[in-house]
């Protein structure tokens, strides 16, 4: 068997196990804590995680994508990148420490400042171990990554339950999330020190080629992050934390399937597509296949959520959250459309065209801001419809600006790739091949 294909197959198995396990733990945590905490607690947590997400975008300055893209990296280059990342992580934590009171004041939630500072400790852990984890990922060591992330998620779930039972309120959410974010990075830091120790070496000239790619990637992710959570920002400011909490729970529910399906595929696709960066025909073929697989899986999953939303909400959150059923259905449409754009990140990494991604995200954020603003003038449900219609509006421009330029795929090819398939023929051929073999 081809070594790359063998690594991919193993990677799919371990990534599937880890991703599904982590998602189940996360869903169980939400389901259990929904019975102990108030909606306002989930509203505060949504704002805290939004701020932490912004911090994480700047953590490695886009160097993760640059490391995936460049195929041969020396130990000196890795060392230069590590020291830049570590120093920058410490600076980011210091900035967050000082600006958190102003963020809390903006949302008129004094407790938010303390929660942000606690969660920002994860930044220091990421600065220490993030690069080591990226190296494991690039080397297709998905087994160790999956086991560490799954173990952290299970322990995190236990911490959340224990703290909730002892009535620690929102801190049950905060400390369990902190543990899940920080521990894997600390583990890979310690592992890296033994297996691939960093040298006391630094040259800015060695890091500049990576930073050139990374700066655009950070800008792109930063804009895309605001684009993704514009609804959270607006609802947090214009509506109560209780309403935000209900909306956040609905959004987290519909995010779970995509958080299981998409990472399983894209974690493999990131290093794999990068290996095909010199052959645009192979790159296009694999990208379109990737799109079709994601579309097919997500379509039927989200169709099921739309149909059985009342049952799902009652089982996961309890009868007091019946009011979010409509939001779950609307946001399921939104999440399906959004999932179709997820593989573009793997394509950007493969081609190194982070500049295109940055400019596209600026444009799409401007469009989405208009849709979200108009929706916020009506109701929270209108905001959910607004983000859904916004993504539908951006479908053709997304193909024209990104997919066409990086792969040469026509609109017809791109549209056909999105049409869901059941893959019955492929399954039958696989079974037949094994049986005959």
Automatic annotation (TrEMBL):
InterPro entries: Poly_Biosynth_Transport
Alphabetic keyword roster: Cell membrane, Membrane, Transmembrane, Transmembrane helix
Keyword Transmembrane set for record: yes
Transmembrane regions: 12-32, 44-68, 80-99, 111-132, 144-166, 172-194, 290-315, 358-377, 383-403
Location in the cell: Cell membrane
CDD domains for the chain: MATE_tuaB_like
Principal cellular location given in the protein's record: membrane
Membrane topology of this protein: Multi-pass membrane protein
Family as reported in the entry's similarity comment: Belongs to the polysaccharide synthase family.
Name the UniProt record assigns to this protein: MOP flippase family protein
């Amino acid at each position: 068997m081809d070594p790359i294909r063998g690594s991919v197959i193993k990677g799919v198995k371990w990534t599937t196990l880890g991703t599904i396990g982590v998602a189940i733990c996360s869903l169980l945590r939400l389901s259990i804590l929904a019975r102990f905490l108030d909606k306002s607690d989930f509203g505060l947590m949504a704002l805290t995680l939004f701020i932490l997400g912004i911090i994480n975008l700047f953590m490695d300055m886009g160097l993760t994508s640059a490391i995936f893209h460049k195929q041969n990296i020396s130990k000196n280059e890795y060392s230069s990148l590590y020291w830049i990342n570590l120093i920058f992580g410490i600076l980011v934590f210091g900035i967050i420490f000082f600006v958190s009171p102003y963020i809390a004041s903006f949302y008129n939630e004094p407790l938010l400042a303390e929660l942000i500072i606690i969660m920002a400790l994860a930044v220091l852990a990421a600065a220490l171990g993030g690069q080591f984890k990226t190296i494991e990922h690039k080397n297709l060591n998905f087994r160790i990554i999956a086991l560490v992330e799954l173990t952290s998620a299970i322990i995190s779930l236990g911490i959340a339950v224990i703290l909730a039972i002892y009535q620690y309120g929102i801190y049950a959410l905060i400390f369990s999330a902190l543990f899940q974010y920080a521990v894997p990075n600390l583990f890979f830091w310690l592992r890296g020190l033994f297996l691939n120790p960093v040298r006391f070496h630094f040259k800015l000239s060695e890091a500049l080629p990576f930073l050139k790619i990374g700066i655009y990637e950070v800008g792109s992710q930063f804009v895309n992050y605001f684009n993704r959570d514009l609804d959270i920002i607006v609802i947090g400011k214009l509506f109560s934390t209780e309403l935000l909490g209900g909306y956040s729970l609905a959004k987290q529910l519909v995010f779970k399937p995509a958080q299981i399906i998409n990472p399983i595929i894209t974690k493999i696709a990131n290093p794999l597509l990068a290996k095909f960066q010199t052959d645009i025909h192979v790159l296009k073929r694999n990208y379109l296949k990737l799109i079709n697989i994601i579309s097919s899986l997500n379509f039927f999953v989200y169709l099921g959520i739309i149909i059985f939303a009342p049952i799902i909400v009652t089982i996961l959150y309890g009868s007091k959250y019946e009011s979010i059923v409509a939001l779950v259905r609307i946001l399921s449409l939104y999440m399906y459309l959004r999932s179709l754009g997820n593989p573009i990140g793997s394509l950007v990494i493969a081609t190194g065209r982070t500049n295109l991604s940055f400019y596209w995200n600026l444009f799409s954020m401007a469009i989405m801001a208009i849709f979200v603003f108009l929706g916020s003038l009506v109701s929270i449900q209108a905001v959910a419809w607004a983000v859904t219609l916004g993504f539908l509006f951006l479908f053709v421009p997304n193909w024209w600006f990104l997919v066409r330029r990086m792969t040469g795929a026509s609109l017809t090819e791109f549209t056909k790739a999105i049409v869901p398939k059941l893959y019955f023929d492929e399954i039958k051929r696989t079974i037949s091949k094994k049986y005959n073999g």
